[in-house]
Amino acid sequence: MVDKPKVVMFPGVQKTSFVQSTFRKGIERTGLLRIAGMLTSRKWTFALMAVGFLLGRAVILESLTPFAVAYFTVIFFLRRDLLLPVAAAIVAGSWLAVAPEPMWIAMELAVVYLLLRGLEAYERAELSYAPLLVFLATMLVRLFGVVTTDTLDWYQLMMVGVEASLAFVLTLVFVQAIPVLTLTKKSSALKNEEIICLMIMLASIMTGAVGWTIYGMSVEHIMSRFMLLLFALVGGAPLGASVGVVAGLILSLADTNAIVQMSLLAFAGLLAGLLREGGKMAVAFGMLLGSSILSIYVGNQADVMASTWESVIAATMLMFTPKSIIRIISKYVPGTQEHVKSQHEYARRVRDVTAQRVNQFSEVFRQLSRSFGQLGQEATEKERREEAAGHFMNAAAERTCNACHKRELCWEGRFYDTYKMMTSMMTTVEEGRRLGPKEVPREWSVHCVKPHQVLNVMQQQHELYQHDRHWRKQLNDSRQLVAEQLSGVSQVMEDLAREIQREGQQLHLQEEQIREALEGLGLSIQGIEIINLEEGNVEIEVYHTFGRGYDECRKIIAPLLSDILGEPIAVMSETYPEKKGSAAQVIFGTAKAYEIETGVAGLAKGGDLLSGDSFSTVELGNGKFAVAISDGMGNGERAKQESSTALTILQQLLQSGMDEKLAIKSVNSVLLLRSSDEIFATVDVALIDMYSAKTTFMKIGSTPSFIKRGNEVIPITANNLPVGILQDIDIDLIRVQLQPGDTLIMMTDGIYDAPGHAVNKEMWMKRVIQEIRSDDPQEIADGLLDTVVRYHKGDIVDDMTVVVARVDKHQPEWATFRWPGVTKVERPRTVS
C-alpha cells in the first residue's frame, strides 16, 4: 500500500475551503499563464511572419533579393520554433514580388537549411558561421540559375557576387537588429552600430512594400516617414537625419524613380529632430515642412500633393502612437531622458540591493558580537569561591581520603568538623602560606591523620587552578576583544549601508542644473556626476576636455559651485588622461575650514640609516587629519617593523571609520598575537577635525606632546603602557580645541629624554620650543632636532623623530562670484 500524502492543517482553517481555494487558485493561475504565453507567442509569430513576407517580396536593383535568405538564417538561430511559418511567409512574399522568383528563393532557403543541419551533425552550427553560409548558399543557387538559363556573362557573374555579398552583410545586420526589434536584447542601451543596423532592417522591410499604393500614395513612403518621425521624436536631429539617409538610400535602390527620397527624408528628418522639444506636433510640422520644400523643388504639382498627403498620414499615425511605445524606444537610445532615467533607476536598484546586503552582513556581525560577549562574561565572585571550594574538596577527598581507613568517620560521622577543617586549610593555601611540620594547627592533627598530605594536595591543586584561571581570563579577554571588534565592524558596515542609500538619491536634476550653469559660462562639460550633496561633505565629479594652461576648474568652476551651493568648494583632485581627446576627471569637494601644514625631522641611533621610529601625516578622508608617531622597542630593523606595523594598521582602521579606542585595542591585540617574544611600541596620535579644529589625542606609552600658541607652550600628557605588552590597556582620549596659528609638536623619547634625569624634561622642552622663533613647521622640526644633537655634542644616543603640524584657517584661492540667472541648487534631504 502506498501512503497517502498528509495535509498540514493550521488552527482555525477548514480543510475543505483551504484545499479547494488553493487548488482553484493554482488552476486559475496556470490557465492565465498559459493563455498569456499563447497570446504572446502568437503575436510574435504573426509579426515575424509579416517581416518575412515583406523581406521575401523586397527587391533591389531590379533583380537582387538578398534579404530573404539572410533573414531565414538568423531566424534559424534565434527562433527555431518559428522557422517553418517564417519560411512559408518568405516564399509567399517572393511569389507576390514585382519580379517573382519563388523557386530560387525556396532553393536558397533549402540549401542554407541543409548546410546548417550538416553543421549540426558535427556540432559546428554557430551563429558566427551564419554570414558565410548565406554567402555560399546564395552564390551556389544563383550560379546554378545563371548556368541553366544560358545567360552566362561577366555582368551576370558580377551581379551574383554582388547579391551574395549583400546577403553576407545583411546577415550581420539582422543578427544585431532582430533582437532589438523583438525586444529580446539583454542590454538597455544600444551602440551606434546597433542603431544603424536597426534602421537598415526597418528600411529593408519597407522595401517589401514597394509598388503598393493607396489612392495614389505609396505605402513605403508613408512607412518611411512614420519611422523618420518616430526616431526624430526620440533622438533628435542626428538620429532623424540618419534615419532619413538610410531609409532613402535603400528605397532608392529598390525603386530608381525614388532617388529623390534620400535627400527629402534626410532634410525632413533634420528639421523634425530640431523641433523635438516641442513634442509630436512640432516634430510633425518639421517633417511636413522639410518634405514639402524639397517636393516643390524637384517635383511637379501632382508629386507635391502626393508627398504632402503621405506626410500628413505619417503625422496622423504618429499622433495615435501610444506614449508607451515611444518610451520603450527611448530607453534603447543613448542620450535620451528616458535612457538616463532607466540608467538611474538601475543604479538605484543596485544601490538598494547592495545596501540591503551590507545591512544583513552588519546584523550578522552584530549577532556574532553579542554571542562572543555572552561567552566572555565572567562568573561572579561568589560563584568563583563556591567553584574553588568544591574543586579543592573533591581533589583532596579523591587523592587522600579515598584510601584512608577513617574516611567514613570523617565525611559521615563528623562531616561538619571535616568541612570546617578543609575550609581552613583551603584559606591557608589561598593566602600563599606554606606550613612546616611543626606549624600545622593542633586541631588539624587531632581531626586528620594525614594533614600534610591533604595540604600538599591542596597546594598542587591551587597552583593548577591559578594557571587555569589565568588562561580562562586570557580567553575571556580575547573573546571580549573579538566581540568589540565585531561590533566595530558591524558599525562600519551600517555606516556604509547608510552612505550607499544616501548616494542613491535622485540627483540627476541637480546635475542638469549645474551643467546648465557651467555651459552658461561658455564651458563645455562632458559629464557631471554628483556623489554627495550633504552639507559639509559635498563631492562632485566633473569630466571636461579643457587644456591645462588656464586652470578653469579652480578659477571658474569652484567659485561658481561655491556660490550656487552656499558653501566653499575646492578642487580635491584632478586626473588627466594619457590619450589625447579623452575627458579629464576633476573632483570637487567641500573646502576644509582649516588646513594643516606639516614638517618632519629624524635621525637613527649612531647615525645609522634605519630608525626604529615611524610617523604618518595623512588625511583620513572623513574630514579628519591624522598626525601619528610610533617608537618601537630598541633600534634597527626589528623596532622599525614594530612601529610601522602599529601605525599602518591604525591608519587603515581609522580610515575605515572604526572608533578610535577600538582601533587602538585592535592594534594592541595584533601585536600581542604576532609573536611570543616581547613586542611593543608606543603610539601617539592626534586626530584634527579640519572643519572645527577640535583635536583628539590618543597617547599610548608615548612622551608628552606640546602645543605652541604664541609665546605659550601647552603640554599634552598621559600615563599608560605601550601597546603589545598587556591585554587590557588604558586608553585616555584627550580632547583639545586648537586655534588658528597653533603649532602641534610630537616627538619620540629620543628627543624628550635628551636632557637626562637630572633636569626637568618638560620644563626644558618648553623652554627650547619657546626659543624657536620660526612659524614654519619644517624649520621648527629641524631646529628642535638640531638643538638636541648639539646638547649631546654631536652624539646621537637614540632614535630621534619629531613631527610638527601647524593649523591655519583655510583661505580660498579664488573668491566666489554671482552669475545672473543661476539659481541655488536645492539639496535633497539626508537619509536618516
Any key phrases for this structure?
alpha+beta, 832 residues, disordered N terminus, five-stranded antiparallel beta sheet
Give the arrangement of secondary structure elements.
Elements: H1 15-57, H2 67-78, H3 83-95, H4 102-121, H5 130-148, H6 154-181, H7 192-207, E1 213-214, E2 217-218, H8 219-254, H9 260-274, H10 280-298, H11 301-319, H12 323-332, H13 337-375, H14 381-401, H15 407-413, H16 415-430, H17 442-447, H18 451-503, H19 508-520, E3 525-532, E4 539-544, H20 552-565, E5 569-575, E6 584-590, E7 594-603, E8 613-619, E9 624-632, H21 636-655, H22 660-674, E10 681-689, E11 694-700, E12 705-709, E13 712-716, E14 733-737, E15 743-747, H23 749-752, H24 761-771, H25 777-791, E16 800-809
Antiparallel strand pairs: 1-2, 3-4, 4-6, 5-6, 7-16, 8-9, 9-10, 10-11, 11-14, 12-13, 12-15, 15-16
Helix pairs in contact: 1-2, 1-3, 1-7, 2-3, 2-4, 2-5, 2-6, 3-4, 4-5, 5-6, 6-7, 7-8, 8-9, 8-10, 8-11, 8-12, 9-10, 10-11, 12-13, 13-18, 14-18, 15-16, 16-18, 18-22, 21-22
